[in-house]
Amino acid sequence: MIAIGFCLAKFKIVNVDIFKKINTFLFKGCFVCLVANNLVTRDISSFSFVPFVIGALSLVTTILTFTLIFAFKFDDRFEVFLSTALPAVYVNYVIIGLPIFNSIWSEAESSIVFIITLSNDLVTVPLYLALTAFYHVYRNNRDHREKGEPEEKFSLRTCGGILMSLATNPIFIGYIIGFGWSGLKLPMFTFLDTILKYLSDTVLAGSCMCVGSFLAEHSLISCHWLQFVVCLVGRHILMPSFSLLYCKLLKIDGRTARQCVIMTALPSAVASYLLSTNGGVGAGVASTMIFWTSILFLPAVIGWLELIEKLNIFPENTDAPAV
């Protein structure tokens, strides 16, 4: 579907603006259904939030590692840090991750995908929004100082805007509906189940086409090559390595540990481009990472699977309950 979307946009068979409208509809109208559909019929008491903890610890540690950027003499170290960190830790857990997960493990265990995705929505997004807001205050104050004008302050209004962005995020709303429905043990009506299923399937196919159209209109490398390499290392090597480390330290069972490591080796999320564009920081880096990690993630996943298997790092207990 990615190839189809790429060809349709590249050869101008379908206008790129149409794909943008489709992408908006999928994100705002269908993502809620995709997330909720995978949670409403499950017993919330059976959920393990271990994947969320591993995902959150891994991404935070990766971001902290990237603070080494401040030790170098860039013109705008804060901007380089933000533009590097986001696409390196914002993982495409759902659109790419769900099919990959189901091709390796049982679909009955796929709730792990949505649990680990919480680390994106409850950690990465709020953290990025807050840091971006700080960055704009910092940059504006730098300009104000040069002009001899009064400096701005990080206000409660800014904090409120960040919280509102999180609360109105369609994926976050999907979690509220899914966990609420499951926790209250409400019945699933046939018509509602059908609607959720169709809209969920639409996301997986439609988003892949939109990714293809997105790749057709951007340069292959739209940032400095060194920043690109650092981002790739962070995405496919650094974050999975931290995931492996935390799974070992916390003594996570072998099957869940393997799943967490592989999930954190997936490509950068397309939403990282939307966030960076809206935040005005690092759109070129995000677009470059989306393109190349969509190609390189398979070798990365296979490499991590082989490494774990050959070294027998996480022996699987086949009798262990599904996450």
TrEMBL record:
Q: What subcellular compartments does it reside in?
A: Membrane
What keywords were assigned to this record? Cell membrane, Membrane, Transmembrane, Transmembrane helix, Transport
Specify the domain of life of the species encoding this protein: Eukaryota
Q: Which membrane topology describes this protein?
A: Multi-pass membrane protein
Transmembrane regions listed in the UniProt entry: 49-72, 84-105, 111-138, 159-181, 225-247, 259-275, 281-305
GO CC, sorted alphabetically, is: membrane
One Pfam entry name: Mem_trans
Q: Give any single GO term for biological process.
A: transmembrane transport
Q: What is this protein called?
A: Auxin Efflux Carrier family protein
Q: What is the lineage of its organism?
A: Eukaryota, Metamonada, Parabasalia, Tritrichomonadida, Tritrichomonadidae
